[in-house]
Design goal:
Layout (H helix, E strand, L loop, with lengths): L12 H13 L6 H14 L3 E5 L2 H11 L6 E4 L6 H8 L3 E4 L19 E5 L10 H7 L4 E5 L7 E2 L2 E2 L6 E5 L13 E5 L2 H10 L4 E3 L2 E2 L10 H32 L15 E2 L5 E4 L3 H10 L16 H7 L7 H9 E4 L7 H14 L5
Parallel strand pairs: 2-3, 2-4, 4-5, 5-8
Antiparallel strand pairs: 1-9, 6-7, 6-12, 8-9, 10-11, 13-14
This protein binds pyridoxal-5'-phosphate (PLP).
Length: about 350
């Protein structure tokens, strides 16, 4: 096992107890904790509604199904976790890719809607807010769905990610900035009709116990997971603050390593939450190997851009060269360890090894 892991969820006795109590005292599915978690999450993000579902992928898919994007197009980024684009396909639409900027977020000048565009789906990659104003300007009168699966608590011009577009989609998978102790997801929105449609879609299309007026799914968040998530949510701000402090420490210690490009620490307008701390370098694989040999776990998010995934090459005929900025990101990005319980000394140790790798004195 690596001496310094890439990520580690915080799991406290309080979270385990909350889960156990929900299992003992509540309905296992659609128990009270689910609705409380939704209310608390909506309040946290700053939207009127939050509808829980069983994953981030389902949050995206159901949001787009509820917006009826079927047989139309959704503009999104090729540089994300594959689920971003796959959810477009599940919703019956065609993903149209727009290449990215140097920070990995979608380039608004590449967002070029047509008559067939049903929505734009930007991702707040690594927890760093996408340029939402420019995206909205590039796509007036087009629905915007935020993939905030890596951006719990991040903010853009004073608003939380997930509260800026028509809907925000979150994942609570175990490595995210907060988890429900397994898979889970949430859609945030101010649109009451959309929220009501989502509540039906996630629950078998139910309008009442035995009446179903749409073709729904079984995509509910389990009560025990919601109870776990409620406790995590109370710690989210403190954990994000810790992530930012560790990111600043990395940046300070690595600032003179010319071979490495550091991520933005944010601006007054865009406050990131460092779901991942991703550096870029030309000899990425060799640096990763060196760190690995010395007990530091790293990862690549993402080594294959979505358009070059076999499923997408086969379905849409993409080839290398289609989205050069994304391909370059895929070749150079390296995620260094970052998690709330990481110690300063561990950051220093990673930095020492990086500097040593480049022949300096760590
Ligand atoms: C940007 C992004 N979109 C979508 C997803 C899908 O979320 P889930 O794994 O909960 O389905 C994830 C996370 O895995 C993600 O990081």
């Amino acid at each position: 096992m690596a001496r310094i892991p890439l990520a580690r969820p915080v799991i406290s006795e309080e979270m385990v107890q909350a889960m156990a109590q929900a299992l003992r005292d509540e309905r296992l599915v659609m128990g009270e904790s689910v609705f409380r978690f939704e209310d608390e999450f909506a309040r946290y993000v700053g939207t009127d509604h939050a509808v829980s579902v069983s994953s981030g992928t389902d949050a995206l898919t159901l949001a787009m199904l509820a917006m009826n994007v079927r047989a139309r197009e959704v503009i999104t980024t090729p540089f994300s976790f594959v689920a971003t684009a796959t959810s477009v396909v599940h919703a019956g639409a065609t993903p149209i890719f727009a290449d990215v900027l140097a920070d990995g977020n979608i380039d608004p000048s590449e967002v070029m809607p047509t008559r067939d565009t049903a929505a734009v789906l930007p991702v707040h990659l690594y927890g760093n807010p996408a340029r939402m104003d420019e995206i909205a300007e590039a796509a007036p009168n087009v629905r915007i769905i935020e993939d905030a699966c890596q951006a719990h608590g991040a903010s853009y011009k004073g608003r939380k990610c997930g509260a800026i577009g028509d809907a925000g989609c979150f994942s609570f998978y175990t490595t995210k900035n907060m988890t429900v102790g397994g898979d889970g997801g949430m859609v945030t929105t101010n649109d009451e009709r959309l929220a009501n449609d989502l509540r039906k879609l996630r629950d078998c299309g139910r309008v009442s116990r035995y009446e179903h007026d749409v073709f729904g799914f079984t995509s509910r968040l389990n009560t025990a997971n919601a109870a776990f998530g409620r406790v995590q949510l109370r710690h989210l701000d403190e954990w994000n603050e810790r992530r930012r402090a560790l990111a600043r420490r990395y940046s300070e210690r690595l600032k003179d390593v010319m071979e490495i490009k550091l991520p933005t620490l944010g601006t007054r307008d865009a406050v990131p939450v460092f779901h991942l701390f991703v550096v870029r370098c030309d000899d990425r694989d060799s640096l990763a190997r060196y760190l690995g040999e010395n007990g530091v776990e790293t990862a690549v998010h993402y080594p294959i851009p979505i358009h070059l995934q076999p499923a997408y090459r086969d379905a849409y005929g993409f080839a290398r060269g289609s989205y050069p900025a994304s391909e370059r990101m895929a070749d150079t990005a390296l995620s260094l360890p970052l998690f709330p319980e990481m110690e300063e000394g561990q950051v220093d140790e990673v930095c020492r090894l990086v500097i040593e790798h480049y022949g300096g004195k760590g």
